[in-house]
Write a structure and sequence with these properties.
The complex is a heterodimer. Chain A is of the alpha+beta class. Helix content of chain A is about 20%, strand content about 25%. Chain A contains 22 helices and 49 strands. In chain A, α5 (about 220-230) links the parallel β10 (about 200-205) and β11 (about 235). Chain A is elongated, with a radius of gyration of 37 Å. By secondary structure, chain B is an alpha+beta fold. Chain B is built from two helices and six strands; from the N terminus they run βββαβββα. Chain B has helices at about 35-40, 85-94, and strands spanning about 5, 10-15, 20, 50-55, 65-70, 75-80. Chain B has a four-stranded antiparallel β-sheet. In chain B, strands 1-2 form a two-stranded antiparallel sheet. In chain B, about 15% of the residues are buried. Chains A and B meet through α18 of A and α1 and α2 of B.
Chain lengths: ~1000, ~90
């Protein structure tokens, strides 16, 4: 291919010269170039290697349908693979390189694959599962796994940098009356019409300039169009792709903010991911020119006809010297004339025999001829041609470029996203959009209109349609009929090669040939969806924008059917690739999800806490002294609590205010245990079941006044319980006068636990009588004041099994409360304790948490049968003894000791009988800890039949993940102080 | 993206809401039989077309809503509060 830059052509800015590198060599281009046009202008023909066969590939198109010129842009952590050179704007210092080749695209050692084509036919990857014939050697996954790494390395595309992305991305939102996708003649006409009718309009264009296909016209002035649109108040979004349509007129956009700038301001996001909520959508996405399948139709120098027109008139690049154009329709003749006027020697092969076309006779037209075979490997030497009526090589034309036009495919992709199936139009040999009830209208060549005036008329009609559907007007309108060429198109998808093996490419992206489609048919993959998956036709970057129809037509021919009977695959979003960075936006690193901290978060850290994430919450994990490890620390903390006193931040518990005259009745219905007799000034532990009788959550409710309760829930279920209470009150028990309010953020809570806890509190409250055993017995509640006139709520509740209190103050007083409590706890050699020690204390005591209450456990399984009232009905009471829930061999909560007390075990260990170590065993260990009180490791968990069945049996704890096994014995879950003497002290 | 017209907050994305379930179930009384509860909890119609379902405006006003939605097209015909008293308030404010 001999290309050259012409002086009098193009819309590039020749005053601004840009330098760039291609495969480490430096070249020059102009502002306004794409990487593709700059490469062409520098006479670089080979820009890539194909997916399977590593055949040299050039530039096929000038737009998003490109499947040959996939290159890698940038280096190091900014390396961006599989970028279409045809849409990458040139900037100063751009670094680009070829991919899928070693050492480079000009000389690629894997080019040998081209000669091994018979091994790489469709489905070869799947066939590696079947072993090597004739004996199916290695059948199964082993051989596949052996081959996989070689296949993945050899077949493929660019590789990711593997480094963290240094750029930032952003999510943005907007609303409008009308969004117009595409700024070609129809889109612009629609936008102008709508703006004049006072609609709020957004116009989206994936290119850097407005104009659409008009940018390939020599006399088109895009800045004039842009000014006109802007003066009407239309919001123009260039470099922005509408990649998907969603329910209720929501459009997803990807705006490439800095991909065209050489050293962008790092404060600006690289890309923006827009969610647009519109009232109506007009799609003027245009149409894409198809190629034709014939032997060696992928040699560098092959291009679509329209692409050459863009390179000539937009970029001033004449893409060949001796050009053959092969067509089956009228759309190429204007381009043929312009190419010949620009100095190329042009021959047009038209598969049609009887038709009239007006030209200036500056080029030769061969009626009734089609391309048959290209000679050459890295460039085109000559083209063998054939008569269209009798396919066989008839003569050879010397040329350096072959331009193809096999017809046009309207870009119906966005409609396909909405589940709207296109219908086949025989007279235009293309799929056209079907009607939809949704507020979406197609205009321009996306609805099969081939001339500009029809496109403009359709744009205006489209806006009228939108106004009618929005109820703004009631105006009659009509769309021009599809078509617009003087002579009808003659379907031409493949020119069959007579020799046994051919490389006639249907889909350039994945090296899918006509032989592959036939192989899929022979092997029974005849539905389009199977054809796609077996051959990979229509997959990857270009999603079959050029090749899909050719593949469908071949399958139709093999099945003796028409294309509409064969159908088409569904296009799904995105229309063009969307980077993962844009999808995640700012939700990366620390901002991946929201972070919740308690009001004494900083206080905890200042006092040496190591933090741990629990759900979204940051909670103190342990408070190491000097060189203590986690184990040292939590064992010391738990022992200190049992010996004297400890303080623990429990603010993350859910807290709900329940108020209103029917509050007591409400609690009595939602808890399994009775609440009707709870006195004011007392708290009660309660269990909530789901409708189906399984435990939902446990917590406490404190009766503060006749009609007012303060409920605590577990940390993990707080949001769920709140929604559940609201659901019950708003949907089921609408006669109850109860109000529920989440007050989780409003109250800061601590647990003060240990034999010295009352003495600590004595020193912290205004009136120490308030917390005496008389005034505040076990499960008692009081509202009083901490020193310094700080209002607080105290309940004598114990999760540790010790004498213990929960103290709540308004969040603003959290630090003051901590200072006060800590100052006094220190006097008794107390400690601060974290989640790890909290776990130790509750496991020793046999209290359950979310690790045990996992949504499969009944109240009886948890050993809490006495919490299920028999005197009332409540949520779940009818269902808790249903079917399998009453089986005798249910897994029941128990404690576990290692038989050899020196051994340790882990949560997740499977409990088995001695001679039957397999499968799910007879139980599982859910929580483990070292017990300072007992001096060895202990666990909580479940075993079928419970303690009674296994208490004298030696069981085995199997831990295959850690390759560990130990002997276990089952004990009561209440491993210390089973009578609760300490709590009641 | 489904857009739900919350009677209190206005039209919002479905990501602000949580799906509840079938809005046509009449839950039996708490002392009803296991059989009645089984019917209410486990048996659901698989409707093609419009159905009434509950949604919770969990990231908004916290109202539980009855939404009439097509399972085929996601078209929404009506949205109203579940609680009859809230329905009256909405009606009176129209």
């Amino acid at each position: 291919m001999k290309t050259r830059r012409l002086d009098n052509y193009g819309k590039i800015n020749r005053d601004k010269i840009l330098s760039f590198s291609w495969d480490k060599k430096n070249y020059k281009g102009f502002e306004g170039d794409t990487l593709a046009s700059a490469l062409l202008a520098n006479n670089i023909g080979i820009v890539g290697r194909s997916f399977k066969y590593h055949r040299p590939r050039g530039i096929f198109s000038s737009g998003v349908e490109e499947s040959g010129a996939l290159v890698t842009i940038g280096s190091k952590d900014r390396r961006d693979p599989n970028v279409r050179a045809t849409t990458q704007e040139l900037y100063n210092g751009l670094e680009a390189s070829g991919q899928n080749a070693f050492p480079n695209v000009n000389f690629d050692l894997a080019g040998i694959n081209n000669y091994l084509g018979r091994f790489f036919a469709a489905g070869f990857y799947y066939k590696t599962f079947m072993g090597i014939p004739p004996f199916e050697w290695g059948r199964g996954t082993a051989i596949w796994m052996f081959f996989e790494k070689f296949i993945r390395k050899a077949a493929g595309m660019g590789s990711a940098s593997g480094l963290p992305d240094p750029d930032s991305y952003e999510h943005a939102h907007d609303f409008c009356d009308l969004i117009v996708v595409g700024s070609g003649p129809s889109g612009v006409a629609a936008a102008i019409e709508a703006a004049e009718k006072k609609l709020d309009v957004i116009l989206v264009e994936q290119d850097s300039l407005v104009g659409g296909d008009q940018l390939a016209e020599n006399d088109f002035d895009n800045s004039q169009t842009k000014n006109q649109l802007e003066n009407l108040g239309i919001k123009i979004m260039t470099r922005t792709t509408a990649f998907g349509l969603y329910d209720n007129c929501v459009v997803g956009l990807l705006e490439r903010v800095t991909d065209h700038i050489s050293s962008p301001n790092l404060n600006i996001p690289r890309q923006r991911f827009w969610t647009i909520r519109a009232k109506h959508i007009i799609v003027g996405a245009g149409a894409i020119e198809r190629h034709i399948a014939f032997n060696n139709n992928d040699i560098p120098g092959v291009m679509t006809v329209n692409a050459s027109k863009h390179y000539l008139n937009r970029y001033g690049v004449l893409s060949g010297k001796r050009i053959v154009i092969a067509t089956n329709n009228d759309s190429v003749y204007e381009t043929a004339q312009q190419l010949s006027e620009a100095g190329a020697n042009v021959t047009v092969l038209d598969s049609r025999i009887n038709f009239e076309i007006k030209t200036n006779k500056s080029f030769e037209i061969r009626k009734g001829y089609v391309p048959y075979n290209i000679n050459g490997s890295k460039k085109i030497d000559s083209l063998d041609i054939s008569k269209s009526e009798n396919i066989n090589k008839s003569e050879t034309i010397n040329c350096d470029q072959v331009l193809l036009s096999g017809g046009w495919s309207p870009a119906v992709h966005l409609l396909s996203h909405r589940g709207i199936r296109p219908k086949w139009d025989y007279s235009n040999a293309c799929f056209l959009p079907s009607d939809t009830k949704e507020n979406i209208t197609l205009v321009g060549s996306a609805r099969g209109l081939w001339n500009k005036n029809d496109c403009i008329a359709s744009g205006i009609a489209g806006t009228t349609d939108a106004l009618n559907r929005l109820g703004i007007s009631k105006t009659n309108y009509f769309f021009p009929k599809p078509g617009g060429w003087k002579n009808p198109i003659q379907p031409l998808y493949e020119v069959k090669y007579k020799k046994s093996r051919s490389k006639s490419f249907v889909d350039y992206q994945h090296d899918v040939t006509t032989d592959d489609v036939r192989l899929a048919h022979r092997e029974g993959f005849i539905s389009v969806e199977h054809l796609k998956r077996y051959t990979t036709l229509g997959m990857a970057n270009d999603q079959g924008k050029m090749g899909n129809i050719i593949g469908l037509s071949l399958m139709a021919e093999l099945l003796n059917k028409e294309i509409p009977e064969v159908g088409t695959t569904v296009f799904r979003p995105p229309y063009t690739p969307v980077s993962i960075g844009a999808l995640s936006g700012r939700n990366v690193g620390k901002h991946f999800r929201p972070l919740r901290v308690t009001p004494m978060h900083q206080w905890n850290i200042d006092h040496g806490a190591k933090m741990i994430e629990v759900g979204l919450y940051q909670r103190p994990w342990y408070y190491p002294k000097e060189n203590e490890t986690l184990n040292d620390s939590y064992i010391r903390e738990a022992s200190t609590v049992r010996k004297t006193v400890g303080i623990c931040d429990v603010t993350s518990l859910g807290k709900i205010a329940i108020q209103g005259p029917d509050s007591t009745e409400f609690l009595n219905r939602i808890y399994s245990n009775g609440f009707s007799k709870l006195q004011v000034g007392k708290a009660r532990y309660g269990i909530m079941l789901r409708d189906d009788g399984i435990v939902m959550d446990d917590g406490t409710s404190w009766r503060l006044a006749e009609n007012e309760y303060f409920m605590t829930t577990s940390t993990s279920e707080a949001a769920k319980v709140m929604s559940w209470l609201e659901e019950l009150l708003q949907t089921r028990w609408t006669d109850l006068n109860v109000n529920v309010t989440s007050v989780s953020e409003q109250w800061a809570g601590v647990s003060v636990a240990g034999p010295k806890s009352r003495e600590v509190l004595n020193n912290c409250v205004d009136d120490s009588l308030d917390v005496s055993n008389n005034n505040l017995p076990f499960m008692g509640v009081t509202s009083t004041f901490l020193k310094g006139n700080i209002p607080c709520r105290i309940a004598r509740i114990s999760f540790s099994g010790e004498l213990a209190f929960e103290v709540y103050v308004k969040s603003d007083f959290a630090n003051t409360m901590m200072d006060l409590l800590w100052e006094n706890a220190k006097k008794y050699d107390g400690c601060l304790y974290g989640l790890e020690a909290l776990g130790t204390l509750r496991v020793e005591k046999g209290h359950v948490t979310a690790a045990e209450l996992d949504g499969r456990v009944t109240i009886d399984d948890a050993g809490l049968s006495k919490m299920a009232s028999t005197k009332k009905s409540y949520i779940g009471s009818a269902m808790r003894k249903r079917g399998v829930l009453k089986n005798n061999d249910r897994e029941i909560l128990v404690g576990f000791f290692p038989t050899n007390l020196k051994e340790t075990f882990n949560a997740g260990t499977i409990v088995c009988e001695k001679n039957n170590i397999k499968g799910q065993g007879i139980g599982r260990i859910t929580s483990v800890t070292y017990s300072p009180e007992l001096g060895h490791w202990i666990g909580l968990g479940f075993v079928k039949g419970g303690l009674d069945k296994w208490k004298d049996t030696n069981l085995v704890g199997a831990d295959p993940v850690r390759n560990k096994q130990m002997n276990l014995k089952v004990v009561s879950p209440h491993m210390i102080d089973p009578k609760g003497e300490r709590m009641y002290a | 993206m489904i857009r739900i017209n919350c009677p209190y907050c206005g039209e919002r994305d479905h990501s602000e809401f949580s799906y509840g379930g079938d809005a046509t179930i009449n839950y039996p009384s708490l002392d009803a039989s296991e059989k009645e509860w089984t019917e209410a909890i486990f048996f659901r119609k698989n409707i093609k077309g419009f159905q009434f379902e509950t949604w919770h405006h969990s990231n908004g006003c916290r109202m539980w809503l009855v939404v009439e939605r097509s399972t085929v097209t996601h078209e929404i015909k009506s949205v109203k509060p579940c609680h009859p008293n809230l329905q009256k308030v909405v009606e009176n404010n129209k």
